[in-house]
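Team,

Forwarding the record for the chain on the shared tracking sheet. I've put the sequence and predicted structure together so nobody has to dig through attachments.
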Amino acid sequence: MIARSPSTFAAVTVAVSLCLGACKKSSQPEEQGVAPPPIASSKPGACASGGGAVTDKVAGSYVPRSAGDYCIDPNSEQRAFGEESSNPLEGVCNLFDGECEIYKRFGLRRVFTAQYIDGKGSPGIVTLTLSRFSSPEAAYAFFTKRIVADGDPLETAPAPLDAGAAGGLGSGTAYVYRGDMVGELRYLNELESPEQLKASGQRVLPSIAKELGDKLPGDKKLPRPVLALPETDRLPLGLAYEYADLFGVSGVGRGAVGYYRSGGNRYRLAALVREDEAGAKDVMSTLKKLPGAKVIKDATFDALSFPVQEGEGTKVEWVAGRMGATVIAAGDEGFALAADAGAKSGEADKLATVKAALDK
């Protein structure tokens, strides 16, 4: 087996303000230090009638009014940007706290925001940011960017969540992917400690995420390169989708990377699926041109090895093979190599792993 894996993912939410009672400053010495009024809560029974309406005509068909104890806050502002809205897409950048370019990189087309309140009357709220991208492939790439980001999924990835086509549950955050959309949910409560926020989020968010994932339009299928990767030994949510060029090599095109662990060994598998065999052969030809690449002549299928530099001083050796329109590559885990230069497998082991994946 092999060793290897990339990956967290930054939660992006809509800025939400909770009403704080005004604390009047007095010149009377005896009034100094008096605690301010408590944070306003929703009233018990606020969701009894099903919650507020989803006012956006587009989102109204798939954003749930209520889920679990929570429902749409009838007194909070709902906003839509981009396609089929009255607000230009650029206007949403004020909500994304400097991350607008990340969204736009994946072909952002529309954003809808709303807020849920607790029907039992607590100050807990859940914010929803629902983004539509240029394609299901682009949406999934953004979803994995949130889940894996640039960290090690073994340490930073959220827990899998059964919602939509794919979901993740983090500390006070949840993500849902389906079709060309990604929903980002965040639980907030100013009266809770970080530990309490995490516990409450894990209790509150799944029901909203699942309800949203059931209602979102679009297929629940994952992109073909993801389906080409074996599930055995793959880390939970250990998947990333490169929407530009895999390995950072111009001309290779889009593909998926899976992060694996077998016993104490860690490794990565990458997959590219082209429309036909000629397209896959083009991928192999592009990889052959890399410095240090070499053809593996005694393989029973089209195969080669090539190095990829990851960060300072970390060189990952890959072995790629092709059968038909599919290319699979196996490489050492860069995070493991950074900690232990000996955490690598040989060419023969990588080649066997590639063949097993192509044969699956």
